[in-house]
């Protein structure tokens, strides 16, 4: 008996057994064990043929009935697939509770081809509700089920991707990057949901940017840029433009960054993608601030703010407040700068955005240090350092220890030396034992 035939018989037997409400234990006897029945149902090729015929007879089935049973099962699969597609659309339309209610009523065995997809969709629903831990448990379950069954739709890669998103929103950036890399490792080029690969790459670039690893992010972007015409999701395309412009700014390539920001703005405007328009106008403002073109920078920030009412969340406002503060400092508008920076800190706190909170606090410390009010700067640096330590942001720690050493240099010799020692230790942790031999100039 060929393995393909055994698989079909096994699927038919499982379908009939489940329709009768029987467990494996209910069917097993002295002649056939639960393990053998399970192997037959899963189409394991090395099962003794006599056991297959015995099980068919015990279930009251003949070989002639198998095709019609399989056809009925195929129709049931198509119906379930259609319903799951509709539920996924409901989740995308932010009706997570309604979707969860439907998903909870779908009772599938772990070996069912759609079991992993159900868990994945549950995770997506909980994710939209900001219930990160429940979402993570569902994605973990989906990944486990994909390892047990054939995964032709890249549900495993998608689950790793969304698990990374959950970590990102909980400020666990290293874990977010780790899960994203796992998703890329298991992605099947010949499988379904081909967009998932580009979502994973998009997220990887964002996480690298947040972790301060600009050159690594640019390398990923360079690899993906020639494949942009394959990306159907406009948000993914625009995020690549946004992140590329921001990473180029961080490496001092302002003119090239401006070019990408403007190209992205054109696409965002055509596609009426207001969130990305807001982000790109903000980045363009940061670029003109860096080039000391104050009026252009201010115009960019004000243009971005006109889209404020169109944003799903005000989380993104932190950047614009901080940069308006930086712009005001550059023009010696100290009171305006202080007000903007305070708004940036408050906004980052409100939205539990640890990387942006560290940045806003650091800039506020710089604001006071710039005025030679180093004693005023210290509490902001120390508070930022506390958050950086909590989430293991070593690059941020290193920068903050350096600033604290500047503040303590003429005031507290002991604290000055301790800050330098801490800066040295975090630098060693960042290098993680790497040799200096090939370090560039």
TrEMBL record:
Q: Which GO terms describe its molecular function?
A: DNA binding
InterPro entries in the record: Cro/C1-type_HTH (IPR001387), Lambda_DNA-bd_dom_sf (IPR010982), TPR-like_helical_dom_sf (IPR011990), TPR_rpt (IPR019734)
**Which UniProt keywords are listed?**
Repeat, TPR repeat
Species per Swiss-Prot/TrEMBL record: Melghirimyces algeriensis
Protein name, as recorded: Tetratricopeptide repeat-containing protein
SMART domains hit by this protein: HTH_XRE (SM00530), TPR (SM00028)
Q: Where are the TPR repeats?
A: 358-391
Instruction: Name all HTH cro/C1-type domain ranges.
Output: 13-66
């Amino acid at each position: 008996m060929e393995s393909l035939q055994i698989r079909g018989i096994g699927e038919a037997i499982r379908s009939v057994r489940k329709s009768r409400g029987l467990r494996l234990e209910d069917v097993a006897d002295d002649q056939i064990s639960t393990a053998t029945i399970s192997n037959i149902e899963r189409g394991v090729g090395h099962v003794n043929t006599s056991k297959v015929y015995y099980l068919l007879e015990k279930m009251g089935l003949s070989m002639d009935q198998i095709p019609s049973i399989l056809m009925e099962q195929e129709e049931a699969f198509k119906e379930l697939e259609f319903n799951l597609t509709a539920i996924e659309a409901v989740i995308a339309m932010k009706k997570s509770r309604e979707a969860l209610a439907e998903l909870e009523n779908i009772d599938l065995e772990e070996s069912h081809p759609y079991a992993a997809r159900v868990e994945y969709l549950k995770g997506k629903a909980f994710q939209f509700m900001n219930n990160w831990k429940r979402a993570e448990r569902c994605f973990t379950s989906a990944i486990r089920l994909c390892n047990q069954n054939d995964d032709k739709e890249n549900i495993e890669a998608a689950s790793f991707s969304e698990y990374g998103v959950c970590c990102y929103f909980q400020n666990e950036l290293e874990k977010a990057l780790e899960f994203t890399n796992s998703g890329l490792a298991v992605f099947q080029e010949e499988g379904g949901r081909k967009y998932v690969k580009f979502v994973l790459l998009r997220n990887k670039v964002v996480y690298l940017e947040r972790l301060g690893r600009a050159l690594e992010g640019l390398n990923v972007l360079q690899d993906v840029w020639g494949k942009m015409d394959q990306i159907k999701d406009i948000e993914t395309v625009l995020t690549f433009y946004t992140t590329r412009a921001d990473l180029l700014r961080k490496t001092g390539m302002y003119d090239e960054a401006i070019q990408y920001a403007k190209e992205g703005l054109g696409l965002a405007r055509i596609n009426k993608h207001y969130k990305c328009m807001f982000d790109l106008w903000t980045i363009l403002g940061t670029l003109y601030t860096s080039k000391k073109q104050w009026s252009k920078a201010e115009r960019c920030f004000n243009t971005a703010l006109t889209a404020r009412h169109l944003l799903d969340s005000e989380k993104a406002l932190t950047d614009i407040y901080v940069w308006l503060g930086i712009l005001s400092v550059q023009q010696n508008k100290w009171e305006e700068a202080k007000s903007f920076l305070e708004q940036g800190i408050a906004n980052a706190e409100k939205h539990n955005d640890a990387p942006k909170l560290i940045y806003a606090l650091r800039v506020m410390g710089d604001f006071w240090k710039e005025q030679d009010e180093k004693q005023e700067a210290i509490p902001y640096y120390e508070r930022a350092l506390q958050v950086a330590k909590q989430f293991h942001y070593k690059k941020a720690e290193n920068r903050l220890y350096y600033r604290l050493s500047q503040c303590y240099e003429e005031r507290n010799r002991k604290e000055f030396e301790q800050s330098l020692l801490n800066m040295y230790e975090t630098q060693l942790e960042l290098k993680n034992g790497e040799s200096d031999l090939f370090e560039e100039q």
